[in-house]
Amino acid sequence: MELLIIGAKGMLGQELVKVFKNDENYEIFAWDKEEIDITKEQEARKKISEIKPEIIINAAAYNLVDQCETDEKSFELAKKVNGKAPGYLAKIAKDLKAILVHYSTDYVFDGQPEIEEPSGCTHSCESCGLHEKFTPKIGFNEEAKPNPISKYGQSKLLGEKEIQKNTDKFYLIRTSKLFGLPTESETGKKSFFEVMLDLAKNKKNIHPVKSLSERSYLSGKFNGVKAINEETSCFTYAPDLAKKTKEIIESKKPFGIYHIVNGDHCTWYEGVLELYNQSGIKTKVEPVEGNFFKRAAKRPPFSVLLNTKLNPLRSYKEALKDYLYELKKSQKN
After folding, report:
1. What is the average per-residue pLDDT within 68-72?
2. Domains of the chain (ranges plus CATH)?
């Protein structure tokens, strides 16, 4: 089976390549921006049509969240890569009778989830006991209505709409807080956990993160790391997401929207505490509010993605153990 992976050098793309290359049932075409420009529809169509893949997985994205907000050229590029290009791929996939897999984000939501009510609730509570033993799952399920509050989120929602408009054979997978091994790409963004590990090794300097998305600093006065104790959502380990993607395809799940994240939602601050605890790092961590750092784009305050269609992934804490082991192994090689 011919399978095309676009964005193959990215954090997720490289894991998708590993997962599918280990299966002799697939002939893999692993392309990155050097091989294809998905923002140019006719060029992309010509190149993809030459190999006629049965499955197209698009792991390419523009994810500089704050630059989208402040720089019009960046926002235009985000709309091309995250918005229009997935629509082009959807058209190409439909013409080739191929399946399209595409990844979106929790940032398509505004952070104000509806609270689930128990079955039979009439909102007349005087004599109702339905809530006594009922614990609602709070978050956004696959059917929740998107309402992005940032330009980056708008660009990703545009991609969702373009795909749904142009093909019926798609798996649209929303995820959040992706982490994994460093990418092969020179322009690849570091994961939040990689940044926090780097910061812990550099206690003497104030060290701004290149990406403003999860911006934290080492502070000379505090002698530790400041991390945002807001913006609750779920971390997602790239290898787990890649494996679950393969599972969705091979089990022939109904086409549509899926939410895939690791379990145990948390804030950035709570994630750093877990990371340093598992790593044996003694660096102090100070919780701060989201507005402590000057970030241009708004983030949803609560964007937990609820998975109602698949077996759940393991806790991010368990995945973090594997990440640290693989990271250590890669640094030795």
Report:
1. 97
2. 2-332 (3.40.50.720)
